[in-house]
Design brief:
499 residues, Aldehyde Dehydrogenase, Chain A, domain 1, Aldehyde Dehydrogenase, Chain A, domain 2, 6-stranded mixed sheet, 22% strand
């Protein structure tokens, strides 16, 4: 059995805590590797090493740091197949979906090539007699990222790229469920020219997370995961004086207006609701058709599409629509919530509870489910299922439909399908959700915009990637400068105008 490592000071390092977690093949249920779980002492030692390496990296000019990102782009493209296979083997995603995971992270690295432009300060000449003012964006020092299982390439790259481009050292604590891809990415960063010690990958569990939050050297922490953990990390990190951004759960609504192209809407719901087995924070998990006629027609179009979905292991090739969920516990939780929906009165239109895949009976496969007549008091509506389960909540009017999304505690993503520009414009302006799609089911912004949810989907003032990332990973210092040339003044004891 393969024994994974940490990545410390530019090399693979075995864990010394004596604690390990099993890494499963979700398609078979078999243990394929074990990963070390770092102790607080191991984490603290890696942080100290990172702090020592950071000063020289911060002194490296930003265009040279950008060249490391440029080299990283080439290396990721070179090793795309290797990364996708490693990702699929531990997570269960299909190969095309795994490549998409890597690609969306790669786009942020491409954006980080432009670090020199993003780190420029401001300058005012002659703000007063002989006085100039300017600002500088300077790195924080050591930052850390705690990233989830569902995007083991994309989200680590979203965190590492901007933090490193700004001149910080970075500590990555990836998910212990699928840790291989972050370790490969660390190797590629070294090949791209990143100095040893500037990036450390520390595998671990809650002990490592708490060590990150309590370590006085770490200045900033980014997290993506469930809302309860996001609240915990945000509270503990902020109380320790750190800059913290946390992104939590989601319950994304897609409103389907009576004038929508229902074939387009149905196709969108299939991809957004069932792709990656629903293990996406931007997955559409609630369809809200407006009017019973719209709902009936939509359900009629969804059923045959869902029944044709092909579920299987990534090794089956490109014909598979989605693979297994990540763990046996995840599968059990999804099926428990499905049972609750039935018990609480929702109509289970497509029932995937008895799904079995011949030859993979021990795998974590979950068949697709479709509920109709779901109400807002049901668990399947209130909770994030994170599985291939789509709930249909019927609305009588547009106002009722938009109210469902606005009243839900989560506010990550949402979408509307309509041919009416006024309706779409009103929806975009009024909805209290962070990312909005108009005839786009999964509105994940590109790298030069920012990604982040509202309400209990996001904690902190700044979002991921785009300009916000460079603001998050730097401090602004403002300098007021005067070089006397015959100016004579006495002591000043109060503020005065510079003009």
């Amino acid at each position: 059995m393969q024994e994974l490592t940490h990545w410390i000071n530019g090399k693979h390092v075995k864990g010394t805590s004596g604690r390990f977690a099993d890494v499963y093949n979700p398609a078979t249920g078999e243990v394929q590797a074990r990963v070390p779980l770092a102790s607080k002492a191991e984490l603290d030692a890696a942080v100290a090493d990172a702090a020592r390496a950071q000063a020289a990296w911060a002194a490296t000019n930003p265009q040279k740091r950008g060249r490391v990102m440029m080299a990283m782009v080439g290396l990721i493209n070179r090793d795309m197949d290797k990364l996708a296979e490693a990702l699929s083997r531990e997570h269960g995603k299909t190969i095309p979906d795994a490549k998409g995971d890597v690609q969306r992270g790669l786009e942020v690295i491409e954006y980080c090539i432009n670090a020199a432009q993003m780190l420029k300060g401001e300058f005012t000449d002659s703000a007063g007699p002989g006085i100039d003012m300017y600002s500088m964006r300077q790195p924080l020092g050591v930052a850390a990222g705690i990233t989830p299982f569902n995007f083991p390439a994309m989200i680590p790259l979203w965190k590492m790229g901007p933090a490193l481009s700004c001149g910080n050292a970075f500590i990555l604590k990836p998910s212990e469920r699928d840790p291989s891809v972050p370790l490969i990415l660390a190797e590629l960063f070294q090949e791209a020219g990143l100095p040893d010690g500037v990036l450390q990958v520390i595998n671990g569990d809650k002990e490592s997370v708490d060590a990150i939050l309590d370590n006085e050297v770490i200045q900033a922490v980014g997290f993506v995961g469930s809302t309860p953990i996001a609240e915990y990390i945000y509270g503990r990190g902020c109380s320790n004086g750190k800059r913290v951004q946390c992104f939590g759960g989601a319950k994304n609504h897609m409103i389907i207006m009576p004038d929508a192209d229902l074939d387009q809407a149905a196709d969108a719901l299939i991809g957004a609701g069932y792709g990656a087995a629903g293990e996406r924070c931007m997955a559409i998990s609630v369809a809200v058709p407006v009017g019973d006629a719209t709902a009936d027609a939509l359900i009629e179009k969804l059923i045959p599409r869902i029944e044709k979905l092909k579920v299987g292991p990534y090794t089956a090739g490109n014909d598979i629509d989605y693979g297994p969920v990540v763990t046996a516990a995840a599968k059990a939780n999804i099926l428990k919530l499905v049972e609750s929906g039935v018990a609480q009165g929702a109509k289970l239109v497509v029932d995937g509870r008895d799904f079995k895949l011949q030859g993979y009976e021990q795998g974590y496969f979950v068949g697709p489910h479709l509920f109709d007549h779901v109400t807002t008091d049901m668990d399947i509506y209130r909770k994030e299922i994170f599985g291939p389960v789509l709930s249909t909540v019927r609305a009588k009017t547009y106002e009722e439909a938009i109210g469902y999304a606005m009243d839900h505690e989560y506010g990550n993503g949402t979408a509307i399908f309509t041919r009416d520009g006024d309706t779409a414009r009103d929806f975009a302006a009024r909805i209290n959700v962070g990312m909005v799609g108009i005839n786009v089911p999964i509105p994940v912004p590109l790298a030069y915009h920012t990604f982040g949810g509202w309400k209990k989907s996001g904690f902190g003032d700044l979002n991921q990637h785009g300009p916000d990332a460079f603001r998050f990973y730097t401090r602004t210092k403002t300098v007021t400068s005067r070089w006397p040339s015959g100016i004579k003044e006495g002591a000043a004891f109060n503020f005065k105008a510079m003009d």
